[in-house]
Amino acid sequence: MSGQCLSLIPVLYYDDLSPQARSCCMLIKVLDVDVELKYINLISGEHLGEAYSKINPSRTVPTLIDGPVTLYDGHTIMIYLCDKYVSKHGPPVMPKDYLGRLEIFNLLFFEACVLHRCHSHLLTDILLHKYPNFAVDYHKGKIIDCYSALNSFLANRTFLAGHCITIADFSAVTTLSALDLLLPINITYWPNLKVWFERLKMLPWYKLNADGIVKQREVLEIVGKFPFPSPLQQSTVVKRKFPFPCDVDYKQIFDKLPEKKFGEHEKMEKHVHFKNCQKAIECSLSQVATECERNSSSLLSQEQCGDKNITDV
């Protein structure tokens, strides 16, 4: 489908509340591509309006328009940009060989079908029902499943697809950081994942993700009444004034989503697939945060990270 855009350079419609929009912005920075950014306010419901629906009938962000090409999915956008442009800051972030690309596709589909679904279902419940009026334990179990799978993927690897950073890392870290807000990654249970996460946060492009995480936290605090275990660290991020009107009818904004009756999740299977993480279910958010902070001082030692210069990717 061709979008309604007369720009001579690619145009990305985005809101940094969207993890995949943040992933695309990070990749654009890495590739050093000249892209026009057009902000779409998800909280105000701008993506549901007639104007944006003509550009993207699925009414999602991000959307990329590049001449006759219109792409509606963040993963597809990243693949397209990598195939069209060459990274100017190191090795290619998308392999050219067949088997290498299959590995990336595996990880991108995991993010889309498992990690992102876990994130979107949880945020929808928080915004619609307010904390704790939804199946908290069910969602905690799903997050733990995701953390455990990623921890296994990272066994003996510096990054998700091997020892070089790829778009699989950009795709996963934005969604993962949003979940980490709600259930902080505990190094005791997921050491590989925790070290990888800290490694990604040291990269210069990560700030594009961090800004969106601050905004998401504000939305969850004000709209979803979510009790975060610790205040924002003012030394690393500056909490901005809440940028959206608080009198918006959020239930109306999300009325296009399938209705979920409270208690429906309790009827679903709550089995956690990874036995070594059973104890994590019983940990409160504050306990997990405390343990993470206790171990944070030793996270980035060379022995744990395995990199002498983390920015030389």
Automatic annotation (TrEMBL):
Q: What is this protein called?
A: Uncharacterized protein
Extract the GO molecular function terms from the UniProt entry. glutathione transferase activity
Q: The organism sits in which domain of life? A: Eukaryota
Pfam families in the record: GST_C (PF00043), GST_N_3 (PF13417)
The alphabetized list of GO BP terms reads: glutathione metabolic process
Originating organism: Glossina pallidipes
**Domain GST N-terminal, residue spans:** 8-89
**GST C-terminal domain location, by residue?**
97-226
UniProt xrefs under PROSITE patterns: GST_CTER, GST_NTER
